[in-house]
Amino acid sequence: MSQGHEKHQQRLEQLSFLGKTLVRRSGAKCELCSHAHGTLYSIEIPPVPELPSEDHTLFLCESCKDVVETSKLNPQEMHYLEEVIWSDLPVLQVTAVRLCRRLRDKGEAWAAELLDTVYLSPEVEEWLSS
Hints:
This protein is mainly alpha-helical. It is built from 7 helices and 2 strands, in the order ααββααααα. The chain has one domain.
């Protein structure tokens, strides 16, 4: 087994230990869209720290996981960002801002308007610029 694969497996194992914390924090729902059906995944939001941390991890449904990890965007289904962008959870706000920026860049006026109104803490601003 390659050393890179082994490191990846160890990181996944470490992430699994965050499961109970993430379930409690999320109420066993997707932290982006709030759906409570299907499998939920622990997804780290870059830049990731050396050791997995709940402060850099979201609990997401498969659909939201795909949106965060790929370039697949369906603007009509992403209006949940209008609520989660105001979260007091920095990892959630960072993710919402990044997604809104991608939507804005694709010409979605509602995402551009939302970005114009949101207040970002210095911590979130720093995270977004890294």
